[in-house]
Amino acid sequence: MAIRDSATGYGWGSLLLHWVTAVIIVAMLYIGSTIESLVGAERQRTLNLHTSIAITAYVVLWLRILCRLFYGLPGPLPRQPGFCFRIVKWAHMLMLAGMP
Fold first, then answer.
1. How far is the C-alpha of 45 from the C-alpha of 50, rounded, in Å?
2. How far is the C-alpha of 71 from the C-alpha of 24, rounded, in Å?
3. How confident is the model at residue 55 (pLDDT cuts 50, 70, 90)?
4. Predicted TM-score (pTM) of this structure
């Protein structure tokens, strides 16, 4: 498997950015859900951690968006109907637009 996307699939670069993004978002959800139950200095430390991860996530998400816009999406699979590919392509772009 190549680093870059090919005409028929995603490369390691796209897969890595996808899973790094997923892990960051899950971590932020977990940390964010615990903030309300904390008090005092522990709450402030957790809030600072959540904010630091969010800033890092923002950089990773923009990198992912820019890579996708620059390289585009791989083409449809050999037996994939054209309308399905267009729906998936637009859904993907809408999700990317909603990230930042």
1. 9
2. 23
3. very high
4. 0.70
